[in-house]
Amino acid sequence: MLTAAGLSEAVTFGFIEREAARAFVADGEAAALVGVANPLSAKFDTLRPSLLPGLVDALAYNRRHGRRDVALFEIARVYLPSGEQLPDERWRLGSVVGGGYAAAKGVLEALYAALQLELRVTRGSHALLHPGKAARTDAGWLGELHPTLLDGVWGAFELDLETLFGAVAERVVYEDVITFPAVLQDIAVAVDEDVEVGALVYAAGDAAGPMLREARVFDVYRGEQVGEGRKSVAIHLAFQSPERTLTDDEAAELRGRIVAALTERFGADLRA
Hints:
The chain has about 270 residues and is an alpha+beta fold.
C-alpha cells in the first residue's frame, strides 16, 4: 500500500550516535540504551530506538544528490530499554514524506483504511517534531519534522506494528453500498480553545452510533462572537441507514444525542 502511495522502501543502519538516541527515550532511560561493544565509529555506537534518524539521513543524502521529490518508509526493528540484559526488540513502520503534517496524516489515513481501522489522532509532542504540529495515534506518533533537522517542510510518522495489527479484525466483512440517501445536517458548537477538534468528531461518532456515516469539520472560527479563550467548530453530519431513508425526526434525534454528548463532555454551546 505504501509503495502504491508513492513511497520508496529504505533500508537504513541499525546503529546511531548515542547522543542522538537520547531524544527517543524517556528521561532516566538513556543509561539503558543498548551500546555497541565494537562500533565502527562514534556515530554508530548505539542500537537505534527509532527509525526516524536513519530515514532523515537517507532523505538528506538523496537531496544532496539532486533528488528533490523523495518519500521514504522503512519496516524494521528498533531496540528499546527493557530493564533486562537484552533490549526490547520491536517491529516498527517509519516514514518521512514531503508536505508536512497533512501529508503524513494522509498516508496514515490510507494505511488505516486499507487495514479497515479507524485512525484516531490526539494532540502530542516529540523532541524531533515541530511544536504544535505533533500528534499521537493508538500505535505511535506523527507530525511535522522540526525545521532544524531538514530544509523544507516534511511529515513523519512511526508506528509499532504489533500494536497496529492487534486491532485488525481476523475476518473483514464488507457491507453493500447503501442505496438509501443520507440526511445531511451541519452544527456549530463553541468550546474552550484547548478542546481538540478531533475529540469532538470522535465523541459525535460514539454518541450517534453506526447511522452517523460521516462527521467532518469544515470550519473553525475565533472571534468576538464566541468570546476570548473559546472557538466555534462547525461539523458536517451525514446520517444514513442501510435499511431505509431516515426521517427528519430520526435525524433530529441523532443530532440531539451528539449535541448532548458534546455539551456533557466538553461544555459545548450549540451555535447553529
